[in-house]
Amino acid sequence: MKIAFLNMYNGLVDRGAETFVKEVAQKLAIRHEVVVFQSGGPSGKENYKVEKIPMKIDWARKSGAGSFLSLLFLDYWNRLVFRFSLKTLSKIVKEKFDIVVPVNGGWMPALMRLATWVYRGKMVISGQAGMGWDERNNLWCFPDTFVALSSKAKLWAKKVNPLIRTVYVPNGVDTERFTANGPTFKTNLPKPIILCVGALTKSKRIDLTIKAVANEMPQIYRAVDVFTLASEPFHSFEIVLVEAMASSLPVVANKDDIRREIVGRAGVLVDPTNTETYAIALENAMRLRWGKRPQNQARKFSWDIIASQYQKLFRKITK
Known about the structure:
By secondary structure, the chain is α/β, with parallel strands linked by helices. 41% of the residues lie in helices and 14% in strands.
């Protein structure tokens, strides 16, 4: 099969969606012809083809999320995605990819839907945006299959557009890189240590710190006792949770259906807006003996398993 992934941000930042593209593309490229269209350059470690689409990006621009223009996909970032998508359009039609996976939302799924209709290709959307306006737009672009990252998102998607095929395939974790064994990050911090990993506001330039230690994340996970993340419940999937569990860490996360499916019995779920119960949950996570539970839970999300599910899906819809 010829498979194309489109994500303007690949090669520029490393978030959940970018990790999804790199990991699944890497696994699928073993048996298929895979091309990733991105505005960043290749790292040199890819076994798939990188098609660089250069874009001038003003990173100082604030996110327009929730604004009137963003709802119409006319804010700065959505206009960038539109231009990026236009630049790839002729290449998609010319190459006649069997499967096209647009990742950025906005105008991208609409344009790719038109392109694949021209030559009768298939479009698959992975619900990286989370339940909300962007995902509704993705569903209304009538992909051949919508991939929900949680059982809750699958039920939600079926209500939004009952006319399309919806399946559940979560994101994953590299269980060979994130393990309990191996070098540990050196720190003078007193025990116990609680770790939280996430992107913060640009003005604080936390991204520079994250980039500086990005390659050392497995060692950092091994240096702490508990991992926590108190994200709002709309987030579709948080790879850092399974990275932490793969490193044998119990996790403390928001008590919602999506986190419950990810964490299972390998952590504590809590309402983090109640700081007293949040603090108790962190103490309990440090006190309990978790054994192999976190690692066993993380193995369910191995990228090998996830990529295999995508391969089966792609084969099924291209028959």
